[in-house]
Amino acid sequence: MNAALRRIITGAMALSLAAPLAACGNSDDTGTHEESIGLLLPESKASRYEAFDRRIITSRISMLCLECKVDYRNAGAQVDIQKSQFEALVKKGVKVIILDPVDAQAAKSWVDAAAKKGVKVIAYDRLAEGDVAAYVSYDNEKIGQLQGKGILAALGSQASSADVVMLNGSPTDPNAPSFKKGAHEILDGKVHKIVYEKDIPDWSASEARAKLNDVIKDRGPAGFDAVYSANDGMAGGAAEALKSAGLKNVPLGGQDAELPALRRLVSGEQSFTIYKQVRPEAETAAEIAFRLLRGKSIKSFTPTTTDSKSKSGIPAKLFNAQIVTKKNLEATVIRDGAAPADWICTKDLAAACKALGLD
Question: First CA to last CA across the chain, in angstroms?
Answer without folding.
Answer: 78
